[in-house]
């Protein structure tokens, strides 16, 4: 893709859309602020609500499912028109979703899926999380071109749908390639600090020269790991190839600097499609599809990552 097309494609995922005003009140249960991507999603959700004249009641769960369940119960008690939730883990939601349904409050899932009956929520706005892992795995298959490679994996939050699905997708993609082997895999909880700590332990246990590639379930963990790799006297992106997911500005900068190799974009604008679906459902009874899928685009050193970094930073990402 040429640079203009690349910038346009990225900009479109970040800019609030002008839409008709509404007098809806919507509760948003956010996971927390574990990553740059998460912070961007919070910002964009507030912008998208404001652009529609929606009153957004925001609750930060600080990574705890029990806080999310309490927030949902509080939204239900307040009689909100709808609820947005980014569920921290996949299981344990049936009861509170039933309570929302009993109160006729539609619930929309943002960016993560749940293991609950589909009829308990209106729709889910997410990427194809398994596909993201497959794209990362396929990138490494192509990059290694048959050469042996010992891989370390930084998983996302244990029990979260992106950690489960991104692992599955990556493993599927490399399964027919005996030259590629995952030798260590551990959670870094989607944070920069844990990404660094766990990468340090991988380097110590394996020896840096015996690790050929890092697959991180998000960019923040990859950025933390880059620091650990540098402190171990190795060159990230060269001695150890790095592929991750999100395409946050710092990942584009790391690719521009040759310290990271690839990232798969996850738009932080899940709220735009979610609020459109809710508006159509509440105001005209239009039933949305059960899954509103967002795009997953691969960025590599072939893209103008310096320009994309500057453009995303300019948008307040
Ligand atoms: O659910 C999406 C994931 O959650 C993002 O990839 C990650 O950065 C975030 O914490």
UniProtKB/TrEMBL annotation:
Q: What are the record keywords, sorted?
A: Signal
Q: Gene3D superfamilies attached here?
A: 3.40.50.2300
State the family it belongs to.
Belongs to the bacterial solute-binding protein 2 family.
Report the leader peptide range. 1-21
> What CDD domains is this protein classified in?
PBP1_galactofuranose_YtfQ-like
Cellular localization per UniProt = Cell envelope
Which NCBIfam families does this entry report, sorted A to Z?
A: YtfQ_transport
Molecular function (GO) terms for this protein are: carbohydrate binding
Does this UniProt record's set of keywords contain Signal? yes
Origin organism is Paramylibacter kogurei
Name-wise, this protein is Sugar ABC transporter substrate-binding protein
Task: Name any GO cellular component annotation.
Answer: cell envelope
**Domain Periplasmic binding protein: start-end pairs:** 26-275
